Amino acid sequence: MKQTEIIDVKTTGNNLTSYEEAYRNFDWKQAEEAFSWHRTGKVNAAYEAIDRHAENGLGDKTALLYSDPKREESYTFQEMKEQSNRFGNVLKKIGLTKGDRMFIFMPRSPELYFSFLGALKLGVIVGPLFEAFMEGAVRDRLEDSEAVALVTTPQLLERVPVKELPALKHVILVGATGEQEEGFYSFEEEMKHASPELEIEWVDREDGMLLHYTSGSTGKPKGVLHVHNAMIQHYQTGKWVLDLQEDDIYWCTADPGWVTGTSYGIFAPWLNGVTNVIRGGRFSPDDWYQTLEKNGVTVWYSAPTAFRMLMGAGSEVVKQFDLSKLRHILSVGEPLNPEVVRWGLKTYGLRIHDSWWMTETGGILISNYPQMEIKPGSMGKPFPGIQAAIIDDQGNELPPYRMGNLAIRTPWPSMMRKIWNNPAKYEEYFRIPGWYVSGDSAYMDEDGYFWFQGRIDDVINTSGERVGPFEVESKLVEHPAVAEAGVIGKPDPVRGEIIKAFISLRDGFTPSDELKEEIRKFVKEGLAAHAAPREIEFKDKLPKTRSGKIMRRVLKAWELDLPTGDLSTMEE
Ligand code: 6R9
C-alpha cells in the first residue's frame, strides 16, 4: 500500500548537514579517526568510551546521571574511569583474563555500569541479563557460554543454579553483607580494596566484547557475539542518528539486557563524551516525564511500546511537566505506528525518529535523520556506509514496492561475528552470498525509504493478498478504543489464512460485539476490505518481550494450540 504522508518539520540537526552527501561520500575509515587505535593498532572500547575523555579535559564532566526511586547519584568521566578500574582490578585478582565470559544479572544501578566497563577493560566478554529472568533462562545462557563469573545481587542469586554450572567459579554480590563463602565475593568489600589505577588490556579490534542472547522462534536462545570494533558504528550512529552534541543530556530508556541498552545506553553516548541519564525502576508516565524534566533531557531514545503507553495516558499529564529542553526523539524495536508519530508531533512538538536494527546488527542500519523528511510508518533510509536492499530468496534485488527480504550488504563494523557454539545458525543469516538476511520483510519506495512489513514468518496471505500485520495493527491503534493490537494469520480452508486481531482496550472501553464490528469496519474503510480482521479477540494484555515487542508467534501458538517455543524473553 502506497503512503505519501510526509512530515517535513525538520529537527535542528547539528552533526550531519546533508544525508545525501554523507551517503555518497562517507567511508567507515573516517569514523575510526576519532579513536586512539589509529596510532596504536590496539583498542579497548571501555577506554575509548570513558578514559579517553577523562584524559582529554572532560574529567570533571558528568558522565552518568543515575536515579531510581531509592537512589540518586552522579559520576564524572574521571570517577567512572576510577570505578571501572577498580572493578577491573577485582576481576584481575580473582583471575579473569581476556576472552573469559562474565555475566551481569541485576537491575540497573551504577554498579552495573562499573562492572560492565571494568570487565571490558580486561578484555573479558560481558553478557548482560534482564533482572526479570527466571532460573531456566539464566541457566541456559550461563551454560551455553560457560561463564566463569557472575555479578548479581543476593536476591537474584536465588535464581542462579550455581551448583549446576560447573564453569561458574566466581560470584560477585552487590549489596551482600557478612562473610562470603569460597567463590563468593562482596562487591563493596572488593572495590574498597582495589586500586583505581588499572593496566588496561589492549585487545585486537576483532576480539570479543559482548554476548547478547536473543530468542528465535524455536529452540534455545542464541548468543550473539559482538567485538570491540563495533564501537566505530556506535560512535558514528550516535553522531548522525542520535545527533549527539557536547552539551546534550541523553536518555536511552532501554535496559542493558536488551541490545539497545548497551549499544545506545552505554557506548554511543559515552563514545561521544555525552552525559548519560539512567533511570531505574518501573515505567509510569509520571515517572518518565519527571525524568525528562528533572534531568533536562535533550535527546531521548525509546520504543514504540513506551510511546503507545504514553499516548494512552493522554496529553493532560504531559502539560504538568516542562519538557522544553527536549529537542530530538527516537524510537526502535518495533514498527512505529504513524498514529504515534502524529501524536508525538502534536504532543511534544517534535517528530519521533524511527530507527531499525537488530541484536545481530549491533547498531543502527536504517533510520530517520534530523535533516530529512519523515514519512510516518517508514523506518527511514540506510545509514551512510550501509547498503540495504529488498531481495528475493535467490538474492535478486527487487524493484520499489515489492515486498521481500530486508537484506544488508556485508560487512559493517558492528555486525555480529559469531553465534556462540552454533556456527550453522550463524551461516544461515549469510546464506545468500554477499548479503546478511535479516528475517524481516519490507519494501522500499521510489524515494529509497524502507517500510517494515513483518517478520518473514508473520506475513499473512489471505485470499492471495499479502498483508503485513503491522499495517493492520497501525490502523487498529488509530481507533480510539484500541490501546494495542497484535495481528496474526490464522489458517482457513477457504482463504488460506484469515486475519485475526488480538486487542487490548484503552481505559474506559468495554469489550462488546458492537465494538468488534465497529473496529472491523474502521479497518475496512481506513485500510482495505481484505485487511480487516475477520476475527477479533479482546485481551487485558498482549504477550510482549521485555524489550516491548508484541510476540505474534505466541499469539499464534496460543491460537493454534502449538508449542510457544522459547519464552524466556517474555515479560511476566
Ligand atoms: C534493536 C532491536 C530486532 C527485530 C527486527 C524487527 C524489529 C526493530 C524496528 C523493528 C520495525 C523498527 N524491529 N526495529 N521493526 N521497525 N524500527 O530491536 O533488536 O531485539 O534483536 O529485535 O525487531 O523485527 O528484526 P532486537
Automatic annotation (TrEMBL):
Gene3D superfamilies: 3.30.300.30, N-terminal domain of ligase-like. InterPro entries: AMP-bd_C, AMP-bd_C_sf, AMP-binding_CS, AMP-dep_synth/lig_dom, ANL_N_sf. Residues 471-549 form the AMP-binding enzyme C-terminal domain. The chain crosses the membrane at residues 112-130. It comes from the Bacteria. One of its GO terms (molecular function) is acetate-CoA ligase activity. Residues 56-419 form the AMP-dependent synthetase/ligase domain. This is acetate--CoA ligase. It comes from Marinithermofilum abyssi. The lineage of its organism: Bacteria, Bacillati, Bacillota, Bacilli, Bacillales.
